[in-house]
Amino acid sequence: MTVVAEILKSKPDGLVHSIRPTASVLEALQSMADLHIGALLVMEGSTIVGIVTERDYARKIALMGRTSVATLVRDVMTTAVMYVQPTQTSEECMALMTENRLRHLPVVEDDALVGMISIGDLVKDIISEQKFIIEQMKHYITGRNS
What we know:
Layout: H1 4-10, E1 18-19, H2 25-35, E2 39-44, E3 47-53, H3 54-60, H4 90-100, E4 104-109, E5 112-118, H5 119-142
Parallel strand pairs: 1-2
Antiparallel strand pairs: 2-3, 4-5
């Protein structure tokens, strides 16, 4: 069973991308597009104050007749940010994401942000584990090591 700390180590880029609550939604969208990501943590200093996602844009800007230029991130961000700890398992994270319809989870240890995982990170990890198990079963059944 993989824990979040192992998933974070396997990520090629361990950076957590963030934005200020006073930035415009357009700035957030441009940053997400440039980085090829779907969410930014909203930070004031080292404190997580929210998360802004592509889904927030779709539901709180486009569908409400607002403009991304005139609207600030703080006006559309999700403030009840769920997070996980490095010791939690991928299965626990998947259950949390599924139950709460989340795609991104910050990873916090001792009140400090240490990373971010996405549903894609979890799926990649689960597929890797399944491939390993399948290979082990093949070796066991055939009695060969390749």
